[in-house]
Design brief:
5-stranded antiparallel beta sheet, Jelly Rolls, about 35% strand, 6 helices, alpha+beta, 5-stranded mixed beta sheet, 3 domains, about 15% helix
């Protein structure tokens, strides 16, 4: 519901007081003091008390003539008109029941020149059945070959696009809001490349259709540094009935990086997740901590200032899952062993750390590019050297 007028707010005042008091709203999951993030949706204690007192005190209108004008809500793309919009070739039909579907669609960019992407906005066409969307850069036509071999639109691929991509183009999950990268940072997108999106569909009991779009925003000046993604992955093997199963994974950085954001991800059984860095001097650098994980409110937690992590810093992902029958988000009637998988009723434990480096020719940087799926930067440099 909209709360953009006094009358609308008054009608929902009892509900407003309840969700504000319980801290259910506004929907901001990170614990304060664990990472200095932008776009924080958190009420101060005094603001919370004011709202509750207003709701319980008869909702006085005050001087409505002095009220600020309502801020227009954005129509269409939330970041403004994209420089390039890519759309699925045709609608995909999602059956009413059956297993989750992981469908990849090839979106040719048609670019005649290399571009640098400073923002990506995904518009899931049907959020009732779209679980998530991931974007990959393809410069070798691998996606087209797979698409041509499948008579239906796109092709099925579990766990990614089915080939080693040149680079990545971010993604979308429920609650995730798009934003521009910091000044001077971009994702490279080579001329003639395709973007292959993997769309995870979860049947909901009704036959549905989807047409998902991608909006790309290009840099107006050359980027100084290029975004890279480091995925921290932890083991998932949750026994049935366990209300607090814990998993943990650490990774030592082979070079200095500036971390720009962190994106934690679990499914329905996830309860807590945190990412911390231990610097070589022993100092702890908390990056994000969520003690009440909710699959419907995921986000990219961007840092107000880049977090400098020297070579040898250790990143640690720590998470807890509740696989008991008392978990209100338990997706099955009888708890069972749950392992890693892409289905909504499976689980994941991963945190994507977006970072930049000073020297992109550093052998350690190249090694990480190869380890984590390739780099558009490397391909562009190889092209330029020919």
């Amino acid at each position: 519901m909209a709360l953009d007028t006094y009358g609308a707010a008054r009608r929902f005042s009892t509900n407003i007081a309840a969700v504000v008091r319980s801290r259910t709203m506004p929907p901001w999951k990170p614990v304060e003091g664990h990472g200095d993030h932008v776009d924080v949706r958190r009420l101060s204690d005094s603001d919370r008390e004011d709202l509750v007192r207003w709701a319980e005190g008869g909702c006085p209108a005050g001087e409505l003539a002095r009220a600020p004008k309502a801020t227009p809500r954005p129509e269409g793309w939330s970041l403004g008109t994209p420089d390039l919009v890519l759309t699925m070739p045709r609608a995909w039909k999602v059956p009413s029941s059956g297993p989750d579907d992981y469908r990849c669609f090839v979106l040719p960019t048609g670019l005649k020149a290399d571009q640098e992407v400073v923002a990506v906005e995904y518009r899931a066409g049907n959020k009732r059945v779209v679980h998530h969307v991931l974007g990959f850069v393809d410069t070798a036509g691998e996606g087209r070959r797979r698409d041509a071999a499948d008579p239906a639109a796109g092709y099925t691929s579990f766990g990614g696009p089915g080939f080693l991509p040149t680079g990545e183009m971010g993604g979308w999950a429920p609650g995730n809001a798009p934003r521009f990268l910091p000044d001077g940072v971009a994702r490279p997108l080579p001329a003639g490349s395709d973007i292959v999106i993997q769309v995870h569909y979860h049947p909901n009991g009704t036959q549905e259709t989807d047409i998902t779009k991608v909006g790309l925003y290009f840099a107006k000046t050359p980027a100084k540094r290029h975004l890279r993604i480091l995925p921290l992955l932890a083991k998932v093997d949750v026994p049935p009935g366990d209300p607090a199963w814990n998993t943990r994974q650490s990774y030592a950085l082979p070079m200095q990086v500036d971390a720009l954001f962190v994106v934690p991800h679990m499914h329905l059984l996830g309860r807590k997740i945190r990412v911390d860095a231990r610097l070589p001097d022993g100092k702890s650098e908390p990056m994000v901590r969520i003690d009440d994980w909710d699959f419907n409110w995921q986000d990219t937690y961007a840092f107000r200032e880049p977090v400098r992590l020297p070579r040898g810093s250790v990143l640690t992902l720590d998470a807890t899952f509740d696989n008991s029958a008392s978990n209100p988000r338990q997706p099955v009637a009888q708890p069972r062993r749950v392992t890693w998988g892409e289905a909504t009723t499976d689980e994941m434990c991963v945190a994507f750390v977006g970072y930049v480096v000073e020297n992109e020719d550093d052998p350690a940087v190249r090694a990480l590019d190869l380890l984590f799926g390739g780099s558009s930067v490397r391909r562009l440099k190889a092209k330029a050297s020919r």
